[in-house]
Amino acid sequence: MNRERAETIAIQAVSFLAEDPERMSRFMVATGLTQEDFVSRAFETDMLVSVLDVVAADDPAMMAFVASADVAPEDVLRARVVLGGTYDVST
Question: Is there a contact between 16 and 23 (Cβ–Cβ < 8 Å)?
């Protein structure tokens, strides 16, 4: 997977979170970010990585995301690796 594809998947995940207030709230709690932080940094690499981490760590969210984005679960994890190194499956 190349960086452009990884960024596309991560941006889809950003949209996925932003579409649902409950998911967005869980993300904010998990990361400690404010809505303003999210909006101003939504497309920065570290934010994209955080979004992928949160989505991947929540099985129902992951399954809903891959269905809505029409991507395979392993592609979400590959995107995480391309954008920010390893993904720790224990988190």
Answer: yes
